[in-house]
Design brief:
- The structure is a single chain.
- The protein is an alpha+beta fold.
- It contains 3 helices and 9 strands, in the order E-H-E-E-E-H-E-E-E-H-E-E.
- A hairpin with a 3-residue loop joins strand 8 and strand 9.
- The longest helix is centred in the middle third of the chain and has 19 residues, at 53-71.
Length: 138
């Protein structure tokens, strides 16, 4: 298993280390994106995520394959949650393992940045008095 690509209801941050561990990896990097309490000085109640799952998984697979090849990674994890998420709850996790730290650091940034640019996942920001859909691609 070189890559784990999933759309899930709940992100389990504890299992990612085991998924990325590899006897040939001296470096493991993980990025977790979570719901923050304020956006543009407005208090966030929750975020809601929707996706076109088949397309999202296909795009996430392309991102993982690119990272594996470009940085010579041993393993990659890309997992995004759907549904309503509360403040502090994780909504996305990406990770990479490689022989050396530089490769997994660079790959991890590529994974999250490219996911946000290309994967069809939409976010509704829920505030106390309104809700706003945010573009899938900033």
């Amino acid at each position: 298993m070189k890559k784990v690509i999933e759309i899930v209801d709940v992100i389990d941050t504890a299992k990612v280390y085991a998924e990325l561990s590899d006897a040939n990896s001296g470096g493991i990097c993980v990025f977790v994106g979570a719901v923050r309490e304020f956006t543009n000085n407005e208090e966030v109640v929750a975020l809601e995520f929707e996706t076109y799952e088949a397309m999202a998984l296909k795009e996430m697979g392309k991102i993982a394959d690119t990272a594996l090849a470009k940085w010579g990674l041993n393993k990659v994890v890309i997992r995004h949650a759907v549904g309503e998420k509360s403040v502090k709850e994780p909504v996305v996790i990406v990770g990479a393992s490689s022989a050396h730290r530089d490769a997994c650091f660079e790959a991890c940034r590529f994974l999250i940045d490219t996911l946000k640019e290309t994967v069809p996942i939409w976010k509704k920001e829920k505030f106390k008095n309104k809700s706003v859909w945010v573009s899938a691609h900033p």
